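Protocol step 4 of 5: obtain the predicted structure for the target chain.
Materials: sequence only (see below). No template structures provided, no constraints applied. The aim of this step is simply to have a reference model before the mutagenesis design in step 5. Sequence pasted as it appears in the construct record:
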Amino acid sequence: MTVIVRDLRSDAPADTEGFARVRRLALPYILFTSDSVRHNALHMPPEARYRPLVAEEDGEVIGAAQVHLAHDSSEPGQGLLSIYVRPDRTGRGAGGLLLRAAEEHLAAQGATRLLGWVLDEPANRAFAQRHGYQASRPAHFLRLDLAGAALPPLPPTPPGVELRTAADFADDPRPLFALDAETMQDEPSDVDVAYTDYDAWIEQYWKHPLLNRELTVAACVDGRPVAFSVAYTDGATGYSTAMTGTARAHRGRGLAKLAKTHSLYRARAAGLTEAFTGNDAGNEPMIAINKWLGYEICATEVRYVRELA
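Step 4 output (structure tokens):
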């Protein structure tokens, strides 16, 4: 049995579903579907040099990699890679082959620094270290049983604040773009991100097939969103928070907690049963909100970094 690595065929359902299946099995805390895999392949900005890869054994996709430049960072030369192998297909060399192909692609695109997330498990960390990567910052995945857990009471909405959904901004989502761009700059990370291209944001994020506009809730002042919680759903029973944040001028009022709590109530009413979110280990305010909501840490990952000579 021979393992080969090749480019994902975004127009082949067997490839996109195989890619999504690998990600769901290896990392069940992030929502992935065939449609979302196809969307990423088709709508990642050209300057990202995005190259999705699959590892195939006897016609079956057993590994997957997302590979691209951090095109929206102010620091050039940063390459991002995410490599996963089906847990029941490890030990066949797929991970090493995917990593080699990813590194060669990023180096050819001018990357001088490579960053990738690794689950905090001995075998995964040993794999990264063996290939010259050094551990950086940790982050947590958190899970909430929407079907069985009791959500805390809805916080009172402060005077002058109105709750709206992303669907209310369907005709003009630019205010949500502005809020997303501001809050993303304050996300703890090894890579700074700046959203400056509205049209690219529309294609990549606003039109994302997992974005649920009815469950994405924004707290608005004078009609403009100042805090929000962005909801992704997988078309089945899964819900995930893609981003929760507050504009700097309105922090300290509990608006992010308010928006996220309302989003979760809406998700449960819609029949969703399992909620996931992720937090940088140093993001104590957001971790506190999630614990108040009933989330529990279910896994930890570590960012690993390799400097290219």
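Step 4 remarks: The radius of gyration is 20 Å. The longest strand covers residues 134-145.
Proceed to step 5.
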